[in-house]
Structure formats: C-alpha cells, structure tokens
C-alpha cells in the first residue's frame, strides 16, 4: 500500500503517520527527517540543505526531488507512507510522473486539516526524541506529554533525550512554513488539490483539531 499524507506543520501528521505505518508495516518516508539525518551526519546534502531549513524555506527541488524519489524506489516492495513531500504543485507533478514511470500506484491520500493559528501553537510545544523520530512528545498534550526524570523532561516512550527543533521555536520560520502549506496556487494546498482532482487515489480528509486517538480511529476506520 502506498500513501501520501498532508497536513500543516503542527497538525499531528507525523504522529498519525507513525500509527498508520506501524499497522500496515510500511516504510515511513519523511522528507524533513531525511534532511535532518543528513545534517546530523554532516553530509554534503545536509550542508546544502541546512540554511534553507533553518529559515523555514523549501530546499530547492534539484536537491529534494531526487532524494525523495530514490528513497521511494527503495521501498517499492514494502509499500510506503510519504510525509512532507510533495510540498508544492511542481513537486506533486514530479511525483505523479515518477510514480507512473515506475509503475507504483498511489492508494490513499490522507489530509489532516487544521486552522493556521492552532497549528502554530502546536508546533511550539513539540519535542524530538534523540533515539526515535517516531516517538511523539508534546508539552501541551496529555496523551503524549514527556515524562520527568532527574528534574528534566525525557521521551515518554524510551526515556531518551528531548530537544526542540530550532525551526519550531522561530515564529518567522513557522510563518514561512505555513505560508507555503496554505498556498493553494503553487504551494502544498495546490499539491493536495492536484492529487484530489486526479482521482488516482482514495482521499481521506480528517479534522486535525480532534484528539490524537479520535483522529487515528477515523483514519484507520477508512483505510480498509
Ligand atoms: P518538516 O520536518 O516536514 O517540517 O521539514 C523541515 C524542513 O525541511 C522544511 O521546512 C523544509 O525546509 C525542508 N523540507 C522538507 N520537505 C521538503 C520538501 N518536500 N521540499 C522542500 N523542502 C523540504
């Protein structure tokens, strides 16, 4: 099964993606996480991408598109859940073309909707686990609140170190990321509409203002 997930930063898209990929044994491909791995590992690609990411700008397509398409091709047998790509109409077209050329089907498009102001508040409270990117931690959500150990907050799943992403604490960077997401001319909403209108996949649209469990129950209930 191959799935595309859409939702503004802060909508819970990563958390829901982790739940879905677990249930169906899919590869979880997150463009942002691949970039962060490259930055951590000090690769050439990471060095090129860092400044864009810190500002909340998109990394140029000539770096991003091949990086994502290569990762998808490696997960062809297993099936994948793609998160963070496509983020623009151009990327949507490139993805559509690559899928057709490689004979990969797109089965579902999951769209999590959320108002911009709520999305912003949610972004600022999330924390990253040093051990596993799929361990959800958020200081404002009871269900995924980090736990306290020796006077500091650690990952609620594994006790790992937590950090906040620099681009999550910078209001200008958050604003830019949301400008890109909510842009329905050439941005991510245009990509969402492109796939909705293509009729190539079943579309599941859910209200992201509900709790994590409610949202996942709705998604899993429709994914059969
Ligand atoms: P995310 O973890 O999805 O919030 O992504 C973090 C950052 O990585 C974004 O703000 C962009 O700078 C970069 N990025 C992730 N996915 C893409 C993409 N599809 N196209 C361009 N840049 C991206």
Automatic annotation (TrEMBL):
One of its GO terms (molecular function) is AMP kinase activity. Residues 30-59 are annotated as: NMP. GO terms for biological process: AMP salvage. Its main location: cytoplasm. GO terms for cellular component: cytoplasm. InterPro entries: Adenyl_kin_sub (IPR006259), Adenylat/UMP-CMP_kin (IPR000850), Adenylat_kinase_CS (IPR033690), P-loop_NTPase (IPR027417). Its EC number is 2.7.4.3. Coiled coil: none annotated. It is found in: Cytoplasm. Keywords: ATP-binding, Cytoplasm, Kinase, Nucleotide biosynthesis, Nucleotide-binding, Transferase. It catalyses: AMP + ATP = 2 ADP. Consists of three domains, a large central CORE domain and two small peripheral domains, NMPbind and LID, which undergo movements during catalysis. The LID domain closes over the site of phosphoryl transfer upon ATP binding. Assembling and dissambling the active center during each catalytic cycle provides an effective means to prevent ATP hydrolysis. Monomer. Belongs to the adenylate kinase family. Catalyzes the reversible transfer of the terminal phosphate group between ATP and AMP. Plays an important role in cellular energy homeostasis and in adenine nucleotide metabolism. This is Adenylate kinase. It comes from Candidatus Electronema aureum.
């Amino acid at each position: 099964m191959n799935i595309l997930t859409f939702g503004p930063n802060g909508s819970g898209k990563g958390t829901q993606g982790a739940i879905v990929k677990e249930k169906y044994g899919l590869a979880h491909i997150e463009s942002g996480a691949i970039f962060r791995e490259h930055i951590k590992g000090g690769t050439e690609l990471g060095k090129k991408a860092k400044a864009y990411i810190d500002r909340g700008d998109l990394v140029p397509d000539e770096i991003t598109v091949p990086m994502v398409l290569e990762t998808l091709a490696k997960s062809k047998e297993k099936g994948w859940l793609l998160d963070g790509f496509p983020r623009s109409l151009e990327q949507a077209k490139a993805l559509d073309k690559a899928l057709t050329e490689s004979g990969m089907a797109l089965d579902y498009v999951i769209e999590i909707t959320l108002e911009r102001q709520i999305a912003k508040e949610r972004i600022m409270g999330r924390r990253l686990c040093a051990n596993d990117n799929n361990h959800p931690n958020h200081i404002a959500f009871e269900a995924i609140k980090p736990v306290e150990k020796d006077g500091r907050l650690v990952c609620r799943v594994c006790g790992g170190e937590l950090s906040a992403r620099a681009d999550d604490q910078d209001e200008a960077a958050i604003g830019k990321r949301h400008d890109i997401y909510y842009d329905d001319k050439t941005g991510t909403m245009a990509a969402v509409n492109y796939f909705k209108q293509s009729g190539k996949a079943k579309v599941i649209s859910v209200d992201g203002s509900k709790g994590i469990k409610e949202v996942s129950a709705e998604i899993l209930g429709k994914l059969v």
